[in-house]
Amino acid sequence: xxxxxxxxxxxxxxxxxxxLSGQHTGVTDLPLLPxxxxxxxALGTRLAGHTxxxxxxxxxxxxxxxxxxxxxxxxxxxxxxxxxxxxxxxEGLTTKEIRETRxxxxxxxxxxxxxxxxxxxxxxxxxxxxxxREATGDTVVFAHGHxxxxxxxxxxxxxPEGGAALxxxxxxxxxxxxxxxxxxxxxxxxxxxxxxx
Length: 197
Prior knowledge:
Order of helices and strands: EHHEHEHHHEHEE
Low-confidence stretches: none
Radius of gyration: 16 Å
Oligomer: single chain
């Protein structure tokens, strides 16, 4: 298959206390756990030798620290467009806890009270995609689970709810690109570099 054009690399941040426990983490600015730091360094090994024209990260420390430990702090540009999906009143809660009062709740279908609509998050990642398309070479972004899943869906021309089908582990690597003129996913949710713990 002929890979053509710029590619967009997506890197989810390493593990935090809340990603480990399954708590929804939007605006809460948590640090990486030691195993998250180790995974971020391993991610750097995967990316070693690859040159990026544009390096972007969320303002949250977990994303920026992942970028730094992966060896991509130089030239790192911070953008609010890569903030995690806003969970409103469900910030810090697990899906199990939310379903105790709202049975069957699904973030992709139901949203969160006081949270960010999926369409608004889609508009943010569309701007990230535009920046990547305008770059003079490949782009790497360091961000969060749900927003990167939405980015993947939008890359493929799907609505933001399409991210529901794109599971993403911590410190996972994804590669989006082109086969001729068609946008494709070359790699998704690759965590083969992450050491077991």
